[in-house]
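Hi L., both proteins are below.
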Amino acid sequence: MQEPVVPGCFLRAKAIGLMPMIDQGEADDKIIAVCADDPEYRHFNDIKELPPHRLAEIRRFFEDYKKNENKEVAVNDFLPSEDAYEAIQHSMSVLLPGFRFSIHVET
């Protein structure tokens, strides 16, 4: 049984993939992650390990939630965890220039 997650709490996350999106004509990539401490998901290390039905649900969620706002969105093919970590590192370097950081990747 899944534990409830309350708003504002912190969870250890593990990025397992990247979902490139185009939202209103602009890139809006999404990091796909699992809770690193959830026994049901913590063994996943890459997006390709998720069941196809789960991937379809994720894709459909992002396609549909924008339709409710009458906005156009395009979801591209999922990319592996390496791409997710590269996107995270790039974002951190843009948001925190000059800040030294490292990302710990558990496998």
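That was the first. Here is the second:
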Amino acid sequence: MPREPRNALNAGGRAGIAEMGYAVWKSGGARALYNGVNASIFRQFTYGGLRLALYQPIRDTLAGSGNETPSAGLQILAGGASGAIASAVCTPADVVKLRLQAGSAQYRGVGHALCTIASAEGILKLWRGVVPTSTRAAVVAGVELGFYDIFKTRAINWVSPCLIVDR
């Protein structure tokens, strides 16, 4: 006889991903596994795009007018700043994503959820959790973007002498 999955919300248990997936499938079918996917895509496009778009201008502003490669610390700082700003701006997308992933039936989609939360609970509820979310994003983006830029610069400097061809 198959074991019934524990419910992580009931009895304080912690279910693994397989148990939670099975429980979601059992309660709502295959469609329930995709709750909030549109909101996840919306959040990723807005946050990811803004984070990448902000990185280079922030890095260049912090570096000043010199033509030298910015220091590693400055690149990591620029990545952290771009992540924090993008996360703060896109926190409403995170709030909507979490609510739709939780399977809230009161929302018909991303736009409806944004409007409903703003009108029913106040516009500031869309920025609930902005400080911890932005702090986490600063750390992640600082490491991701900063180290990517550092390694990219080193790889170009290492490979470019090999690409020079004497004619």
